[in-house]
Specification:
globular; alpha/beta; 8 helices
């Protein structure tokens, strides 16, 4: 008999509030990178909302004996938080993919859902991965912000459908020390502490005008390893190797152009704090453009969505393949020394 959805949290009422589906215009952008050629419409209704995301997860779970679906906590508004699991072999490395700590950074979750669907399909490459890697996928930590179901106004947002913050107007990616919000508390207690991942990619989005250094080339994403001085040297090296795998895989694509994200050292940020507390190798991957924001030049129209979603899938699948065959342990990290930091165009 197919296993049921497991719950490690108290069952609660599912409060679902549909986000607004109005179509708005995005401003002009430059000609480089995945783009929409200016004056493009934003159609956030084409993205998976919370209920649609659950349907995708449950369908994949029902179709695959390799997958196990858990709920590991609840949001401020009572929405369940989901974790897709593949494999539980203690001899295999465990990798965690986390998406949408910020509710307006949506395409990372779209990529995670595609990865889940790929891992439930039959095939030699998929089976090799599942035989050699434990995979954890936590799609959409900020489920309330992604629905626009929050305790503050979104009137100043471009679309008014998604927000960076959770329902309490807290940035979840600055709550990894105090863990005052139910989402981050559950994530630490019921994912990180329970499954002890060896690697983690934290997928985000950045503005549309991020450039490769001081050039006028717009990048499709930016990456960074933990930069706190408290991180263990071995964890830091493994994090840089993880970045090498992602960088090479994305750079091989015609649309892929990555810069080095100019991040800080605060351990309230998952990239830093989790590396120190759990000795997990972490990589931040910031993809271009957001679904919604107060700033017009952070929002990207939907014509780039396909390429950017595939960029996320490419990064995650390359990671799985490198872990499965062990090639990540020989990844060349010297590219970091010459990788230009992000700039920001006018």
């Amino acid at each position: 008999m197919k296993k049921k959805v497991l719950s490690v949290a108290l069952a609660g009422s599912l409060l679902v509030s549909g986000a607004a589906t109005g179509t708005v215009l995005a401003g002009d952008n430059g000609a480089n990178g995945p783009n929409y050629e200016g004056n493009e419409t934003i159609k956030n209704e084409r993205l998976h909302n919370y209920e649609e995301m659950i349907k995708v997860l449950e369908k994949a779970d029902n179709q695959s004996e390799a997958m196990e679906l858990e709920t590991y906590g609840e949001s401020v508004k009572g929405r369940d938080l989901y974790l897709a699991k593949f494999g539980s072999n203690d001899d295999n490395p465990t990798v965690l993919f986390l998406t949408q700590q910020h509710g307006n950074e949506t395409l990372t979750t779209e990529g995670a859902l595609k990865l889940i669907q790929n891992l439930t399909s039959k095939g030699k490459k998929t089976q090799e991965i599942l035989d050699n890697v434990n995979v954890l996928i936590a799609p959409r930590l900020n489920v309330d912000g992604a629905e626009g179901d929050v305790n503050f106004s979104l009137d100043d947002y471009v679309s008014g459908t998604h927000t960076r913050y959770n329902a309490n107007e807290v940035d979840l990616n600055r709550d990894h020390v105090d863990r005052e919000q139910p989402e981050t508390k559950a994530f630490h207690e019921n994912v990180l502490q329970k499954y002890s991942p060896d690697y983690m990619i934290d997928l985000h989005h950045q503005g549309t005008q991020t450039t490769l250094g001081d050039s006028d080339e717009l990048v499709s994403g930016s990456i960074l390893y933990p930069t706190t001085e408290n991180v263990d040297d071995k964890v830091l090296e493994r994090s840089k190797q993880l970045g090498s795998v992602v960088y090479n895989a994305v750079s091989d694509k015609g649309y892929g152009l990555l810069s080095k994200y100019p991040g800080g050292s605060a351990e309230t940020i998952s990239r830093n704090g989790l590396a120190v507390e759990y000795d997990v190798a972490t990589l931040l991957f910031e993809m271009r453009g957001m679904a919604d924001h107060e700033y017009d030049d952070y929002v990207l129209g939907q014509k780039s969505n396909g390429k950017l979603i595939q960029q996320a899938v490419t990064a995650m699948e390359a990671t799985l393949e490198a872990l499965a065959d062990g090639s990540i342990n020989n990844a060349d990290t010297s590219f970091w020394e010459d990788l230009p930091e992000s700039g920001y165009g006018e």
